[in-house]
Amino acid sequence: MDDQEMQLKVRRVSDKFTESMYVLANEPSVALYRLQEHVRRSLPELVQHKTDMQSWEEQSQGAIYSVEYACSAVKSMTNSSVYFKNIDTLLRQTITMKEQISNFNGRRQNDVTASPAPSVPAPQNSPASL
């Protein structure tokens, strides 16, 4: 092999080695650049999703509170059946008493109009009692 051919081969190997070193040295910065580019593009959308999720969470918490409150109200209503039964009994008793009072007042009025009360003579002042 002659000297010129050897120099050409050495130059090729040297160029390939330099190119490889250049690629290896710049690869991390290219990767970081791509990551930065990706973050810039996707970050606003991710922030919007996060905001939406927080809003939905607040709405869900409000709905859960409302449902729990409604459930407790229904449970307390099932426990109040005893009170409603007592109210029903008292109302029935009141209606019965009202009817008895009405019947009593009706008989009393009939008795008063049918037979007048005996008249009581007014006391007379006698001269002896003075």
Give a quick precis of the structure:
This protein is mainly alpha-helical and 130 residues long.
Describe the protein in words:
This protein has helices at residues 3-79, 81-114. The chain is mainly alpha-helical and 130 residues long.
Number of helices: 2
Q: List unreliable stretches of 5+ residues.
A: none
Shape: rod-shaped
Q: How many beta-strand runs? A: 0
Largest sheet: none
Helix content: over 70%
Distance between the termini: 178 Å
Radius of gyration: 54 Å
β-sheet strand percentage: under 5%
Q: Oligomeric form of this entry?
A: single chain
Order of H and E elements: HH
Mean pLDDT: 84
| Secondary-structure class | mainly alpha
Features:
130 residues, mainly alpha
Helix-strand layout with pairing:
Elements: H1 3-79, H2 81-114
